[in-house]
Amino acid sequence: MRANEPMVPALAGELHGHAKRLRKRLRRAKKGDPEGVHDARTTVRRLRLELDVLARHASNPRTMRRLEDRLHTLDKALGDIRDEDVLREDAGAKHGLRPLVKRLERSRKKKERQARRTLSKGRALVRKVRRCEPDADVRLAPRAGKVHPVLVRHLGPEEIARGFDAVLAYETAPIDHESLHRFRGACRRLRYLLELFEEAPAHTATVISDLRGAQSQLGDLHDHHVAVSRISKWLEDGRLPRTRALEDYLVERARADKRLLREAHEQRRKILGADFRARVAAVLMGTPPARQAA
Q: Is 6 helix (H, G, I), strand (E, B) or coil?
């Protein structure tokens, strides 16, 4: 979006563009393409963010929130399939794990069946998003000399600050898998906001890079934790045979899970630290961050 554009029409343009992209990606996802599932989920999340922002600035917020709720259901369905794909891809590259791969293939088909109805409704949902025509809130129209901020460069920093506040809320959260998974979601949302408003505030590149790195590392942690939990449960329930190869694979992933959990603690401290905060503040102020003393 361009800095001097009015916020609502500029954001509506982004919304419609992502909705058009989602239609193609959902088509691939419905055919069982793992990359199609991943790409569709990423686009859904960007659409959800845009609708959430629009709900604060458009004249029809209820419509925006209803669409965002329906996209959340689609996001969940795609996420369930994506977890199966990630584990299946990793296990398929190892020797001696054929029983696990077959179990994952059956599990994925089950998740596909469960998600089929939601994915089938996705096309109609995309049409509704594309036909959505948000208007600026009439309450913000200037009258009697009173004006309100309406441009991208006026409102972008406000939305970025809101996103950063959601990240800072995890400063006192426990260091466990669930909290870190949610922290990852907050980092992803802040990154998407920075990318959405990148032309409005300056100096976003390093902040986006750090958030992308945190998101990737925390994503690896989530993948290992899901793998350990899923395989352990299947072994306990007798749905997988206990083989040496499978036991070794489980130990390997459990060790990686513990290592990544320790590293995630440091990653969270970095994102919540003074240096990162200063760079976010520079983005919000539109000024270059101060140079660190040598």
A: strand
Does 28 fall in a domain?
yes
Q: What is the pLDDT of residues 30-47, one digit of tens each?
A: 888 999 999 999 999 999
Q: What is the mean pLDDT of the chain?
A: 89
Structural domains in the chain (count): 2
Both tokens assigned to 171: 């400063």
207-217 pLDDT, tens digit per residue, is 999 999 999 99
- The 3-class SS string of 96-149 reads CCHHHHHHHHHHHHHHHHHHHHHHHHHHHHHHHHHHCCCCECHHHCCECCECCC
* Largest pairwise CA distance in the chain: 78
Report phi then psi at 120, rounded to 5: -65, -35
Taking only the tens place, the pLDDT of each residue in 139-152 is 555 555 566 778 88
**Is residue 105 over pLDDT 50?**
yes
Cβ-proximal residues to 49 (8 Å cutoff; 6+ apart), any chain: 189, 192, 193, 196
Pick from 271, 277, 156: nearest CA to 216: 271
Residue 93 lies in a domain: no
CATH code at position 204: 1.40.20.10
In the chain, how many H helices and how many E strands?
A: 9, 0
Neighbours of 88 (CB within 10 A): 19
Q: What is the pLDDT of residues 188-199, one digit of tens each?
A: 999 999 999 876
